[in-house]
Amino acid sequence: MTHLFPAASGRRHNRYLLIRHGHSQANQQGVIISSPEQGIAGYGLSCRGREQLDALLADWRWAIPQRILHSDFRRTTETAERIARHFGLPLVAETRLRERYFGDFEGRTDDHYAQVWTRDAADPTHRHAGVESVVEVAARMTAVIDELEERLAGETVMLVSHGDPLQILLAALEGRELNRHREPPSLTPASITVL
């Protein structure tokens, strides 16, 4: 079955810098932290993640953002705070940029991601074990871009989010089949993708 998400039509009015949060304590511990209850209160950046962001900011090669929107999870908030402080910008928490919810896999080892991604490849609408479907993630992530496109023009906007949601967003915006969101190489912590 083919599942396509409507691709953004025409040119965008703004430039977007998509950044995956820096290496986190959840990455370090190899656990899935996808619920707001766990992700907002804990599991911020690891020492490695802070070092990644220091290096990124010391060698900044992109347009300077004028706005920063971020997932309200601790690891994305801490990432956004470091960048905002560097450029003297305010922050806006945006809950639609949150991590994909991994349902019953919450708190389990990160090798369980592969089970979800295998199911994604067969059916991007699946909600096995209470996992948020790829289609649902694509809808909330693209809604953020759509609203910014309606409100702003000519700005550079940074969106600070998580690996899976950002890869799903990219698939949606490129008009790729959503069940293929894991086919490009994984976005690494503290990596920036320009739209």
Structural description of this entry:
The protein has helices at 25-29, 36-39, 47-58, 74-87, 113-122, 134-151, 163-174, and strands at 15-20, 67-70, 91-93, 156-161, 192-194. The protein is an alpha/beta fold. It has a single domain (15-194), classed as Phosphoglycerate mutase-like (Rossmann fold). Strands 3-2-4-1-5 form a five-stranded mixed beta sheet. Helix 6 packs across helix 7 (163-174). The radius of gyration is 16 Å and the shape is globular. Residues 1-9 have low confidence and may be disordered. Pfam families: His_Phos_1 (PF00300). The active site is at 21 (tele-phosphohistidine intermediate), 99 (proton donor/acceptor). This is Histidine phosphatase family protein.
Topology:
Layout: E1 15-20, H1 25-29, H2 36-39, H3 47-58, E2 67-70, H4 74-87, E3 91-93, H5 113-122, H6 134-151, E4 156-161, H7 163-174, E5 192-194
Parallel strand pairs: 1-4, 2-3, 2-4
Antiparallel strand pairs: 1-5
Helix pairs in contact: 3-4, 6-7
